[in-house]
């Protein structure tokens, strides 16, 4: 698969088989992530791989409770509230692996650096025939002292990109994309 095919084929996957992802594949995905550019080549990213489903279930429950406490009113939050209130909804979609990309310490460009690493990881996973999804519902909780403690993360680490990885149950439906809005100057 070439890069254009990976970019076109990569979609957020929210249904996974129970098939494990081989450790060597996970290491390859992380290797691809570390090839991302970073500000001043600081490479601040650190990776935490979670395959313990009981722990992922616990983090899901705690992250949902954290989000429900802090949702601002609005149409979007009403939709999220219904989803987060559902005891059967697991924010990691029962994927076999969560790869959390964190920065070693707060800094000016760590979010951007980790996001670039996450994109590399997700494209590499697509090329391996795997599905991925960035789980925004986990971010706020994982940045709390309780969230960091649940994963035994150093308090100085900044969790940025919680990416689930696994074998998709089905091929994700294509997503319609809007045409880009381009302003040309000169």
TrEMBL record:
Gene3D superfamilies: NADH Oxidase
Highest taxon above the source species: Bacteria
InterPro entries, A to Z: Nitroreductase, Nitroreductase-like, Nitroreductase/BluB
Organism whose genome encodes this protein: Pseudomonas migulae
Protein name, UniProt field: Nitroreductase
Coiled-coil stretches: none
Residue span, Nitroreductase domain: 7-167
Annotated GO MF terms: oxidoreductase activity
Pfam families the record matches: Nitroreductase
């Amino acid at each position: 698969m070439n890069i254009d095919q990976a970019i076109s084929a990569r979609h957020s996957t929210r249904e996974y088989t129970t098939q494990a992802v081989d450790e060597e594949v996970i290491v390859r995905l992380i290797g691809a992530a570390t090839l991302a550019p970073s500000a001043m080549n600081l490479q601040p990213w650190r990776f935490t791989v979670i395959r313990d489903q009981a722990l992922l279930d616990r983090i899901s429950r705690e992250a949902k409770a954290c989000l429900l406490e802090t949702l601002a009113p609005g149409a979007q939050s009403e939709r999220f509230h219904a989803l987060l209130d559902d005891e059967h909804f697991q924010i990691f979609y029962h994927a076999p692996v969560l790869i959390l990309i964190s920065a070693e310490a707060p800094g000016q460009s760590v979010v951007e650096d980790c996001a670039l690493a996450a994109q590399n990881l997700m494209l590499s996973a697509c090329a391996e025939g795997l599905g991925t999804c960035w789980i925004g519902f986990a971010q706020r909780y994982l940045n709390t002292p309780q969230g960091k403690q649940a994963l035994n993360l150093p308090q100085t680490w900044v969790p940025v990109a919680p990416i689930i990885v696994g074998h998709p149950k089905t091929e994700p439906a294509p997503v319609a994309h809007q045409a880009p809005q381009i302003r040309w100057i000169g």
